[in-house]
Write a structure and sequence with these properties.
alpha/beta, 7-stranded mixed β-sheet, pyruvate-formate lyase- activating enzyme
Length: 473
């Protein structure tokens, strides 16, 4: 969306705080918000300090203030809440008149707490497009009563925290404009996209759907999506892919959906549309797909349309642990499905997690050995983290309410301790899993064969976070 035919004298900036990351992609949430507000005639801009030009905290504040914003919208994940807090503090000093709001799964999950901790004016709870628009309209008019704006948390004139009624989810996703690709142009980002490796650059990430109908206890995404699955039409999805390919030169597409293959016929429609338009692209699903939803017909069509890699959420090699985590997956079909995927010439990457409630050294070793014998090309071993919004967090916080070290809420830290395994035990087991898996010459070869030289810096960051002892980082 190159043109901004503003009809309103109200300036908005959407941003995220600067932080050290080994995955750096255009932030689709901000892209959607910016495009939506431009569509409604507002002056809207994105400041992303993670683009190639890399901005410091001071540089980020300076760039935001240059737009003289009336509202600043910040997106922050759990582990970068400290950076968001620092950004808010600095913005208050430089542009004190601007209102500040915060959105994302973390703030949606614990809105009252986040409002108080960061000192922002508003928390956007849930899906943001319609909520931000309604809030901006009130701010533009100078109104001060926000109790009827669905999906926000704020303090009223008396200092009382108000959490308003939940907003209905957008039913027709085709109604939304594409993300503002002019401001989050894939060419602006370094070669550090989602996943261990990519085939081509630049990479265009897209969301073909929103939501997930499953109830995995470790997942926080449904804090926003509420277990409601909605999908864009095949035409709408491929229109965006074609735009990314022809206007922005993207050679690879990443489907960042929670469940790209959930509806087989819908997925085949997307593949057929890519083929019909003769779009020569590579694509993958780095966020994971349901392995039980894949079959030969679907995989053949995916391969024909350019799919070269599927990440698979397997999580544990122990069925009882999986059942307790509400994963709804039968381990007995996994190796067969992996073989089926590989038969179609598609790379397989497995997600595994250690430290589930009930995990012991024995069950973790079962997971490590299962992964090693699964036939996967590559595997990733995360430590379970009790992210706000997940069922695991709701249980964990009952006895850990004093722990608010948000920077430690990552999949390589070990915040969640089982009855048998300490944080140190989990870190050691994670390191063991990676070494055990990649000491296999075939697995190691599969790991290194696709790495591009311009990704080496980011690969080192992955090794630093997941393998090296704390004192060596």
């Amino acid at each position: 969306m190159a043109l901004n035919n503003a009809q309103h004298n109200f300036n908005i900036v959407f941003c995220r705080p600067p932080y050290d990351a080994y995955i750096i992609t255009p932030l689709l949430g901000l892209g959607y918000l910016n495009a939506y507000m431009k569509k409604e005639g507002y002056n809207a801009h994105i400041v992303d300090p993670l683009q190639k030009s890399r901005l410091s905290m001071a540089g980020t504040v300076k760039k935001i203030s240059s737009f003289n914003p009336d509202l600043v919208g910040i997106h922050a994940t759990t582990d970068f809440i400290p950076e968001a807090k620092n950004l808010v503090r600095m913005l208050r000093k430089v542009i004190p008149r601007a209102k500040i709001c915060l959105g994302g799964p973390h703030s949606t999950s614990i809105p009252e707490e986040t409002l108080s901790e960061l000192g922002v004016d508003f928390i956007i709870v849930g899906e943001g497009e319609e909520t931000v628009l309604e809030l901006v309209k009130k701010l533009e008019k100078g109104e001060t009563d926000f109790k009827r704006v669905k999906g926000i948390c704020f303090k009223d004139k008396k200092g009382k925290t108000i959490l308003t009624e939940k907003r209905e989810l957008i039913k027709n996703l085709d109604y939304l404009p594409f993300p503002d690709w002019e401001e989050i142009n894939p060419n602006f980002y370094p070669p550090a996209p989602h996943g261990i490796y990519t085939k081509s650059h630049p990479v265009g990430p897209i969301m073909s759907s929103r939501g997930c109908p499953y109830f995995c206890t470790f997942c926080a995404s449904n804090a926003i999506w509420r277990h409601k699955f909605r999908q864009r039409s095949a035409k709408n999805i491929v229109d965006e892919i074609e735009l990314l390919v022809k206007k922005y030169g993207c050679k690879e597409i990443h489907f960042e959906d929670d469940n790209f293959t959930l509806l087989k016929e819908k997925t085949i429609e997307v593949c057929n549309e890519i083929i019909r338009r003769k779009l020569k692209i590579d694509w993958k699903c780095p966020n994971g797909v349901r392995i039980d939803k894949l079959d030969d017909e679907l995989l053949a069509k995916m391969k024909a349309s350019g799919c070269y890699l599927l990440a698979l959420g397997i999580e544990s090699g122990n069925q009882d642990i999986l059942n307790r985590a509400k994963k709804n997956l039968d381990l007995s079909i996994v190796k067969e499905k992996i073989a089926m995927i590989k038969k179609h010439g598609i790379i397989t990457h497995g997600f595994f997690m250690i430290g589930f409630p009930g995990d012991t050294k024995k069950t973790v070793m079962q997971t490590i050995k299962f992964a090693g014998n699964s036939g996967l090309h590559t595997a990733q071993f995360n430590i379970l983290c009790p992210f706000p919004g997940s069922e695991v967090y709701d249980e964990w916080i009952k006895t850990n309410s004093a722990i608010k070290e948000w920077s430690r809420f990552t999949v390589h830290t070990g915040m969640y301790e089982t009855g048998d395994l300490s944080a140190k035990d989990l870190k050691n087991l994670q390191r063991l899993a990676l070494i055990y898996y990649y000491l296999n010459p075939i697995n190691f070869f599969n790991f290194v064969r696709h790495i591009r030289s311009n990704q080496l810096k980011f690969m080192f960051n992955i090794i630093k976070n997941f393998i090296l002892p704390e004192g060596k980082k």
